[in-house]
Amino acid sequence: MNTTPAVTQLYSILLCSVLFIFTSKLQANDVAQAIAQHKNYAGSQTCRTCHSEIYDQYSKTGHPYKIQAVNGPVTFPSGTSPGVPYPPKDKHWDDIRYMIGGFAWKARFIDQEGYILTGKEHRQYNLANPVLGLEAGWSGYSANTAPRKPYTCGSCHTTAWVATGKNGPHQDNLPGMYGVWAEPGVTCEACHGPGAQHVKTPKKAPLTTEENCGSCHRRGDVKKIDAKGGLIRHHEQYEDLLASPHKQLKCGACHSPHLSVKYPTGGFKGESKTCLTCHTQRLSHIPAKGKFKCITCHMPRMAKSAVSIKHDVKGGTVPEGDVRSHIFRISLDPLWQMFSDDGKYVRLDEDGKAFIPAANACLTCHTNKDKQWAIETAKRMHHDSP
């Protein structure tokens, strides 16, 4: 049967419409089924009844505070974060429904309709950073989306997040929340899986203890380490590790998952239980070594979460962020450029290895020296070690 172009076009439109409706129904069914699984989550307060010691340790980390409801100045457990004393300059606490983060590096704010506040200034609160010599203060956030944008970050900020998009359902019926969760924050079941059945029959329904850090401490393709402004972007530790000489290790080899690495609660197990268990002869021979450790040089602050500074050194500047790199490997090649030409990624060699230039390992402390001095000094650091 011959058909005119108009009829063919009509058939195409009808077919696309049917496919769109069918796909939309499938997506809606998938969302509904995912949300229905929330009934299998017990909640961290239930976990606490049996695992109180672990819960108390975990409550002093940043995980449970990745997003939290607020109604005034935000405080945290004693001995940890100093908290967030003020809302954005043009807002009152009554204007704020949720706060994102705030525990160790920075805080962002969600309005009463569920949208993240954005703009050129006074949209991100940066906590004081004594290491970098910076006081607490404000900066802009995502200015190109001002004055606000939807909240879509729940996969790594909440427990059992289901992305639903503009049409919802929306958490708390807030239109800016493009998804729903079983519990705000990265709580017990975000890592150990849904625990309602475990509560009923603990021995018959054990929870997973398999490490899952890489699901959030990454950004997109694990073979690419994202960068910006001469520093690695935040939550890139997993990609760092995969491009490092320690790619076979699990995070738990060095970290205690229920303890903070930001505040002195033991999240990092210490060099005697980590670096020196393998590198038994890898000792520094520089006389001033008493003031630094393995991580000082091999894990410089090459990533940025909230703030950074630039050190003036002989022949140029060296940036320093507020998060330690997990690349470990130092390059002694004077021509090695750590970042891609467009600055968007960490450069990898043909074997997928990343390197930290010696200048970045040395000159944030030795600001009166230059790149060549850093390379020559690094060569002598472990000169008689295997």
Spell out the key features of this protein.
five-stranded antiparallel beta sheet, 386 residues, globular, 2 domains, 18 strands, 11 helices, alpha+beta
Give an account of the 3D structure:
This protein is an alpha+beta fold. The chain folds into two domains: 44-200, no CATH class; 214-381, no CATH class. 23% of the residues lie in helices and 16% in strands. The protein has helices spanning 5-36, 44-48, 52-58, 154-157, 188-192, 196-200, 237-242, 275-278, 294-298, 358-362, 371-381, and strands at 67-69, 96-101, 106-111, 115-117, 119-126, 137-141, 148-150, 158-159, 162-163, 179-180, 183-184, 227-228, 231-233, 303-304, 309-313, 316-320, 330-331, 356-357. The strands form seven sheets. Strands 1-2-3-5-6 form a five-stranded antiparallel β-sheet, with no helix packed on it. Strand 2 (96-101) and strand 3 (106-111) form a beta hairpin. The protein is globular, with a radius of gyration of 24 Å. 33% of the residues are buried. Residues 21-26 have low confidence and may be disordered.
Which structural class best describes the helix and strand composition? alpha+beta
In spatial order, strands of the major sheet run 1-2-3-5-6
Low-confidence stretches: 21-26
**Total E-strand runs:** 18
- Rounded mean pLDDT is 91
> What Rg do the Cα atoms give?
24 Å
Order of helices and strands: HHHEEEEEEEHEEEEHHEEHHHEEEEEHH
Termini separation: 80 Å
- In one word, what is the shape? globular
The largest pleated sheet is described as:
5 strands, antiparallel
The percentage helix is 10-25%
How many domains is the backbone divided into? 2
Number of DSSP helical runs = 11
Strand content: 15-25%
